[in-house]
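Late entry, written up from scratch paper. The run itself happened at the end of the previous shift, but nothing got recorded in the book at the time, so transcribing now.
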Amino acid sequence: MNTKILKLIAFTLLLLSYKANNVYAQASIDIESGVVFTGYNDVRIPGNFGTLFSLKDDLSAKTKIYYRLRASYTIKTRHTLSILYAPLEVKSEGSVP
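Output as recorded:
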């Protein structure tokens, strides 16, 4: 992951966690990870009358690991600001007749 993004998130949380006027706020960071694979992906090009093919069965895609990062800040238990970073890209290979 880009270190500039991590530094920006850390700096933002540092600024948001500053205590002012006896108001207490809560900052949190969530990290999620897992495995992504193609499932039910049937496509028809063009629209309703074209040729139907399956991105899962007709093409081959590698299983990949994904991750998501979320930084949140709650103000006075009423408002929450969040930043989400969730890159995801799955490339398929093959040919369709």
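The mean pLDDT is 78.
(Scratch paper discarded after transcription.)
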